[in-house]
Design a protein that fits this description.
Largest sheet: 4 strands, parallel
Number of domains: 3
Mean pLDDT: 74
Structural class: alpha/beta
Shape: globular
Number of helices: 11
CATH topology of the largest domain: Rossmann fold
Strand content: 5-15%
CATH class of the largest domain: Alpha Beta
Low-confidence stretches: 1-36, 147-200
């Protein structure tokens, strides 16, 4: 069998790497290679360009994701081990033969292009091994392999015929690459559970170092669902050490106070913008601004606690525009200003906890900037 997961928007590959790793782990059952007894290491071949003039830092990212998945599976019988094959300047077919000849490797992640995938997929098919291409987009590729039982694609027609009755995630027809990977993961994992009577994945409790909120899942989320902090700030709840600020100097305290004012203002603005979008019947605009308001409110709460301030009696209010596009433009200005201030605050922070929080906020607000730019590009096209 061959499995090809298409990631149409390659920029989202890094965001979904953890889900892909989890998908691969569950997919081992499709090749009947799991010993029902003791621990099993799923060796995954990596067929991607690791060097060259345009490296994408695959090795560092995938190593981190594999480590995160293995941490989440610490009490289970599964482990992931990555075997790298650099495809830069080399015939990918030769590297594919090496992976196929290795009996300890059942799965390969790669290659980068549809043409390369079309060349080597039949070899994996014949060997009964799994192939996951994170970037292939060719229609011919999907038509060639759509009949395979363990196949997942981002196109609705393929997703609908993936595994009839097996996909249990909300909205089986994917609206994004992230939802598609989630859909494929649940499909294959539910198939494994049905066949074996138990799942190889166990949920665990995770906690965000920035906002402190807990999350239950098999692997840590790519972003904290509450404050938006990146995955490097998500740890097992059992490893929580209750990070606290020390004695704040005047600079750190002043920067935190200004940050609190920024977050309160942005929270109120996004609430206003969400209400305007709701009144206009703009479902996407409402969802976007509501989500942003919740994230900014979480930031305000985190900063308030760092300053040792009580909860305010009333929520702040802020004006916004009537038109969605004007609110997106306003959001972009606010996020850019916040990011610049937080970056400067992180550089001069004397307290380690203050420096950590400001550094995390820079990453989060940068995500919001990219979100605004994407929305503006769509609205102005």
């Amino acid at each position: 069998m061959s499995i090809i997961v298409n990631m149409k928007k390659s920029l989202r590959v890094l965001l979904t790497a953890a889900l892909l790793a989890g998908l691969v782990l569950s997919a081992v059952s499709c090749v009947d290679a799991v010993d029902a007894g003791g621990p099993y290491t799923a060796k995954i071949g990596i067929l991607l360009p690791l060097t060259g003039d345009r490296p994408l830092d695959w090795e560092r990212i995938l190593d981190w994701e594999a480590s995160a998945v293995n941490q989440g599976l610490r009490d289970s019988r599964f482990r992931i081990q990555l075997v790298y094959k650099d495809t830069f300047g080399v015939d990918v077919a030769d590297l594919a033969k090496e992976l196929i000849a290795d009996d300890s490797i059942d799965i390969a992640l790669g290659p980068m292009t549809s043409r390369e995938a079309m060349r080597i997929a039949p070899q994996f098919e014949k060997a009964g091994k799994l192939l996951i291409s994170p970037c292939a987009t060719s229609d011919d590729l999907f038509r060639a392999f759509a009949g395979q039982r363990c196949f997942a694609g981002t196109r609705p027609v393929i997703a609908a015929t993936l595994m009839p009755g097996e996909c249990r995630c909300p909205g089986c027809l994917p609206r994004s690459c992230l939802l598609e990977c989630t859909c494929a993961f649940h499909s294959i994992d539910s198939l494994y559970t049905t066949r074996s009577g138990r799942s190889g994945m166990k949920v665990r409790v995770w906690r965000c170092r920035i906002c402190g909120d807990p999350y239950i899942g098999v692997v840590p989320p790519t972003n904290c669902p509450f404050c938006g902090a990146h995955a490097e700030y998500i740890i097992l709840a059992s490893e929580w050490d209750d990070p606290r600020v020390g004695s704040l100097n005047d600079t750190d305290r002043g920067n935190l106070e200004k940050a609190l004012s920024i977050e309160n203002s942005n929270t109120a603005f996004y609430r206003c913008a969400a209400a305007k979008a709701d009144e206009a019947g703009d479902f996407e605009g409402f969802a976007t601004f509501k989500a942003l308001s919740k994230v900014e409110a979480e930031h305000a709460t985190t900063i308030r606690k760092m300053l040792g301030l009580p909860r305010p009696d009333a929520e702040p209010s802020e004006d916004c525009h009537d038109a969605y596009i004007d609110n997106v433009k306003e959001s972009l200005k606010r996020e850019q200003a916040a990011t610049k201030f937080y970056a400067g605050s992180a550089e001069v922070a004397a307290d380690a906890r203050v420096r950590e929080v400001f550094g995390a906020l820079v990453l989060i607000e940068s995500d919001h900037i990219q979100l605004d730019k994407d929305h503006l590009a769509k609205l102005e096209s």
